[in-house]
Structures are given as structure tokens and as C-alpha cells.
Automatic annotation (TrEMBL):
Tree of life domain: Eukaryota
UniProt-recorded name of the protein: POL4
Coiled-coil annotated spans: none
Compositional bias annotation for Basic residues: 56-68
InterPro entries in the record: DNA/RNA_pol_sf, Rev_trsase/Diguanyl_cyclase, Viral_Replic_Matur_Polypro
Region (Disordered): 44-68
Lineage: Eukaryota, Metazoa, Spiralia, Lophotrochozoa, Bryozoa
Amino acid sequence: MDDNIEKIRAAPRPTNKTQVRSFIGLAGYYREYIPHYSTIASPLTDLTRRENQRKSNGRNHRRRRTPA
């Protein structure tokens, strides 16, 4: 379990939709231990939707970070 937590902490910022999906999958493994996971992950999930593909303008990476 600790190895996966370190992978999440050390993961680089995703730069494309595939990488965002991969990160969501990795973090989602621990969703039962993260209160309000769906609320926290919602901005990332929104980035994977087709209609938002062109709307990303760099603002999303500045959202509030939560402690891991």
C-alpha cells in the first residue's frame, strides 16, 4: 500500500487526457479511504470529457491541493 501512495505523491502533473485517466485510476484505488473523493476528483474527471478537451486553459492545475 505504501508503494502506491508514493507513486501518487511522486506522479508528475498529467499533460494529456490519457495521463489524467491513468492518475484517476491510480488514486481511485484508495477512494474508500479518502473522504469526499468524488468531489476532490471531479475537476480531473471533467478534464477527461470530450466537450472539455479544448476548454482547458491551465486554470485547472491551480485548484486547491489536498494533503495526500
